DNA sequence: CGGGGTATTGAGCGCCCTCAATCCCTGTGG
DNA sequence: CCACAGGGATTGAGGGCGCTCAATACCCCG
């Protein structure tokens, strides 16, 4: 499976950037009996209440985790980019407490729990790497709680855009401040605990200030440093161990 | 170490309620070279930026994880009750991205990373149980994001009180609707993304309605069912596998 | 009998929400 | 080539929840 271009496989780029995992171990992961599938936008991969028997790996496209409240309000609790294993947790938590849906057309790969569990039992390093991945997911959630709980809408929006830019840069090969971001203002609002009206007005303000532009599913950042400042964005919480070049550029000076 | 009363050890009660771990395996954990320590209220166990070399187990008392923003605002991103391993993540994420402090006088036990890592490497079941614990922490964070992002102050406050009651009931032996809750209104506000003024007013309203009382570090709930309804509280996200009796009573009918 | 932390109260304001209409863009089909 | 549909973005007006600021009351403890 993509032997020649192993470095360009999203999962591999991702694991390499956030863990000390060896390439051999990654290869073992990809040799599991994987089933690939293309799905459209708005596809529900697993729903709240499900008890999945396989994990999902995102090869292309974006997905999100979300919950719906009694009054119909939706809260998105995570975005996922290529290389993410969005429901790795289902390996140990039987019942899904939220839904997983695609935000764009996506190419997914499914790994049976049974096979993955067997591999992790035999390979402790790999198990540690994946455990680490889930811990980074939790770190991102802490950052979201902080952002939603204590920042104004302007800073919240700036923050999520910073995060998505860096996370995308870690797996994509390309321009680092012009990224494909298949996320509607509605979805941003649902992730940030805001309304679409508020998101829209602040995005317009950013645009007027010449800070960034978000149209046609493409985010273009003109003043990364200022955006980062508005967001109070510090990428430490993403816990890169070996950030790819594109990410290093964005992060600038490291402490 | 407390051989006779093994069932009453907080860590054990906790692990038994949220995992399928065997008592033998828990015993192995407690046979590690543990150092116990008593600390006062407001003690910083580990600070943001630290690179701890040991994990902390809470034997008695409450702690919280928190972050401080540039403008001085504080966001609490987790509460911890006896039996919790609040910085288990430091085993795999070197640098702390938040601080860990005590909310009350506490008795802590410290387990060296080295020893714990060795044990987990040899005992995959135990490693899975602890991984599961960190996944439940993440599930709680998702619930917090949902609550802070999409619920009114009244529901948010009700929700955190429900959660703390159930989580405490899982490790404490005693009355299930009258719990020791050493949390100030200020700390509740910092956890919920509210101000102390707002928390205070809603708590008074609850009190006036005869729903609950929170004074002298004690929470007394008079109408659990109504509180649960206001909070839209569904304990599924806590992922109990074998809830203790006190918890079962609170949860009522299970789906 | 202070003293510090905690809780309570009041007045005024502002950020974001709600509701609802309109515009824009893109893809589709006649 | 244009009419049409539909999702998404934009705009306006008005209102409310929670915030800010600030003063006061409470209560445990030495």
UniProtKB/TrEMBL annotation, chains A, B:
PROSITE patterns from the UniProt entry: HTH_CRP_2
Keyword annotations from UniProtKB, A to Z: DNA-binding, Transcription, Transcription regulation
The major lineage groups are: Bacteria, Pseudomonadati, Pseudomonadota, Alphaproteobacteria, Hyphomicrobiales
Q: What is this protein called?
A: Crp/Fnr family transcriptional regulator
The lineage's top-level taxon is Bacteria
CDD domains cross-referenced by the UniProt entry: CAP_ED
User: Where do the HTH crp-type domain residues begin and end?
Assistant: 151-225
**InterPro entries, from UniProt?**
cNMP-bd_dom (IPR000595), cNMP-bd_dom_sf (IPR018490), Env_Response_Regulators (IPR050397), HTH_CRP (IPR012318), RmlC-like_jellyroll (IPR014710), WH-like_DNA-bd_sf (IPR036388), WH_DNA-bd_sf (IPR036390)
């Amino acid at each position: 499976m993509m032997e020649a271009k192993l470095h360009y496989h999203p999962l591999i780029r991702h694991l390499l950037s956030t863990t000390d995992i060896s390439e051999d171990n990654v290869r073992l992961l990809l040799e599991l009996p994987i089933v690939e599938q293309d799905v459209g936008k708005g596809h529900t991969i697993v729903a709240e209440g499900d008890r999945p028997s396989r994990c999902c790996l995102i090869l292309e496209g974006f997905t999100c985790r979300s919950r719906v409240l009694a009054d119909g309000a939706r809260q998105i609790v995570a975005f996922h980019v290529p290389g993410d294993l969005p429901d790795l947790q289902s390996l140990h938590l039987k019942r899904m407490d939220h839904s997983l849906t695609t935000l764009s057309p996506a190419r997914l790969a499914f790994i049976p729990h049974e096979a993955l569990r067997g591999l992790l039992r035999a390979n402790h390093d790999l198990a540690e790497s994946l455990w680490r991945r889930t811990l980074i997911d939790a770190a991102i959630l802490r950052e979201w709680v902080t952002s939603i709980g204590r920042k104004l809408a302007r800073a919240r929006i700036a923050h999520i855009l910073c995060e998505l830019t860096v996370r995308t840069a870690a797996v994509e090969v390309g321009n680092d401040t012009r990224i494909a971001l298949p996320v509607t203002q509605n979805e941003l609002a649902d992730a940030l605990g805001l309304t679409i009206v508020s998101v829209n007005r602040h995005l317009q303000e950013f645009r007027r200030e010449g800070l960034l532009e978000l149209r046609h599913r493409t985010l273009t950042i003109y003043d990364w440093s200022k955006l980062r400042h508005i967001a109070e964005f510090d990428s430490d919480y993403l816990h890169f161990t070996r950030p790819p070049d594109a990410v290093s550029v964005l992060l600038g000076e490291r402490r």
